[in-house]
Specification:
The complex is a heterodimer of chains A (131) and B (191).
Chain A lengths: L14 H22 L5 E2 H11 L8 H13 L3 E8 L2 E8 L1 H25 L9
Antiparallel strand pairs in A: 1-3, 2-3
Chain B lengths: L2 H13 L4 H20 L4 H12 L2 H11 L1 H26 L9 H23 L3 H28 L6 H26 L1
Helix pairs in contact in B: 1-2, 1-3, 2-3, 5-6, 5-7, 5-8, 6-7, 7-8
């Protein structure tokens, strides 16, 4: 049987672990959001659904915290937001800007390089000792 | 509680903490989440509860918007830039022998008090938790700094200070800060 942190009970989500994952993701959230907009404009919840679909449901951040990240990206001019009307109600649609597309390309290249370095280090085998 | 009441209650909790424009967007997302759960076969109340749980605590959402907002960023940048601008003016004041300027002591005291107030307002905006309080403090702090910079530039011009390099540098620093402050106020008011 595994050893659980004090905040966790077997079979229930651990708050500390969820927070840690959210914290780990923080640095990559911008890239993930930009990537979801690469295929075209989407509204906030559609971005969240796409993020979930693209990660097979393994990324499950509190939905409410995605919206502030979208606003931050909009202030950084990496995406633009505009209001449209859908089913009789106003809806904010986000779209990647040329600067956002360029940033995404750069972040992708950085990630590939980072992942390659870490993978190489983790999978390195020790030299065999002489018999 | 009825499903619509649960959603409305959550939206009301958000509206108490965030501006209407943001709440409108969040309410649309919450409705969309609710509809997704209904499509998956959840009952009305279960769907509303699931959508609310998925969105997270209104306090956490408001804190995230506060942290990502233009008010906090502007306040932090002005606080970081403050010592630099202060050094420029310090050098200019020493170079032009500011203690000999024909400025009444009361005016000097009022300037100092306004400077302390501006720093306090920017500190509130930089570290506060409430979205509205942070926005108001940032606007007031930016305006205060812009007024103080304008006063210093005005005094330099009215006393026709010899344009020694420290004075020129200080005036340039203040002009940049005024421009940034005005643009930040516009961004905070817009968002």
């Amino acid at each position: 049987m595994g050893v659980y942190p004090p905040c966790c009970l077997p079979g229930r989500p651990c708050v500390a672990l969820l927070l840690m994952r959210a914290e780990e993701l923080k640095g990559h959230l911008d890239s993930l959001l930009l990537a979801t907009l690469e295929s075209g404009p989407r509204h906030g919840y559609a971005i969240i659904e796409e993020l979930r679909r693209a990660t097979g449901g393994r990324l499950d951040l509190p939905t409410g915290t995605i919206y502030p990240a979208l606003h931050r990206l909009e202030q950084a001019r990496l995406i633009t937001g505009s209001w449209s009307v859908a089913a009789g109600r106003r809806r904010r649609i986000y779209q990647l800007t040329p600067a956002g597309a360029k940033a995404l390309t750069g972040k992708r290249a950085d990630w590939r390089e980072f992942a390659a370095v870490i993978t190489a280090a983790l999978e390195a085998r020790p030299w065999p000792h002489p018999a | 509680m009825a499903a619509s009441g649960l959603i409305a209650g959550h939206v009301a909790a958000l509206a108490a903490r965030l501006p209407a424009r943001i709440v409108e967007e969040l309410a649309d997302g919450l409705d969309e989440a609710n509809r997704c759960y209904l499509d998956r076969g959840f009952g009305e109340e279960a769907a509303a509860q699931a959508a609310i749980a998925e969105f997270g605590d209104p306090q956490l959402i408001a804190a995230s918007f506060t942290a990502a907002g233009p008010a906090r960023r502007a306040a932090r940048r002005l606080l970081v830039a403050g010592p630099g601008a202060g050094l420029c003016w310090g050098a200019a004041l020493v170079a032009t022998r500011a203690w000999t300027w024909p400025v009444p002591d009361a005016a000097r005291g009022a300037f100092g008090a306004a400077l302390v107030l501006a720093v306090a307002l920017l500190a509130c905006a930089a570290f506060g938790q409430s979205y509205r309080a942070v926005s108001h403090a940032a606007i007031a702090g930016c305006v205060c700094i812009a007024v103080l910079d304008t006063v210093m530039i005005g005094i330099s011009a009215s006393l026709a200070l010899t344009p020694r390099w420290p004075v020129v540098l200080a005036v340039v620093a203040s002009t940049l800060r005024i421009t940034y402050g005005i643009r930040s106020v516009a961004r905070v008011c817009a968002g």
